[in-house]
């Protein structure tokens, strides 16, 4: 059964303080796509927003957050479920918005330290799917168990993008 794109409906503006984009990782994504022969070649759209997107896909990646509040006792935390929204634009443009999380102790937004491999893997997989390349669905949850997902502290959950996978 071929992959069918669903119409995209924007869910609202995204705050830059609670989200991040990583255009510097496009070269790694392009390298990972080099065997796929996608035409035209995917390009990172740093200014594209919800209104311009053809379709979107939400998934999750891994990383760490540091609490930058000097008055907070919690220094940081790891997460196996960081929400990411991958958007597709005309002519094979794309971008990926990563949603930050809040500190459980003080509820301030944490500073993200991305697991670049999981980001590149998820973005590459989605771009290949959108290009119609058949692939087996990777096992994302396998042995990468982590603490339960904190819905109230996840900016992706607050905006309805997070898959809430436990």
Automatic annotation (TrEMBL):
InterPro entries from the UniProt entry: ZAR1/RTP1-5-like_Znf-3CxxC (IPR027377)
Domain 3CxxC-type intervals: 60-160
Identification of the protein by name: 3CxxC-type domain-containing protein
GO molecular function terms attached to this record: zinc ion binding
Keywords: Metal-binding, Zinc, Zinc-finger
């Amino acid at each position: 059964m071929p992959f069918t794109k669903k119409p995209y409906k924007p869910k609202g503006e995204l705050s830059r303080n609670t989200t991040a984009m990583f255009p510097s990782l496009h070269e790694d994504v392009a390298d990972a796509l080099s065997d796929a022969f996608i035409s035209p070649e995917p390009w990172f759209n740093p200014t594209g927003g919800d209104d311009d997107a053809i379709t979107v896909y939400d998934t999750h990646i891994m990383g760490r957050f540091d609490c930058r509040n000097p008055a907070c006792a919690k220094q940081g935390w790891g997460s196996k479920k960081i929400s990411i929204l991958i958007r597709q634009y005309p002519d094979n443009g794309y971008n990926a918005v990563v949603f930050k999380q809040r500190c459980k102790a003080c509820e301030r937004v944490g500073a993200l330290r991305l697991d670049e491999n999981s980001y590149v893997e998820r973005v590459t997989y989605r771009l290949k799917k959108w290009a119609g390349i058949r692939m087996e669905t990777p096992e994302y949850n396998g042995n990468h168990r982590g603490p339960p997902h904190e819905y109230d502290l996840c900016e992706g959950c607050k905006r309805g993008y997070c898959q809430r996978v436990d």
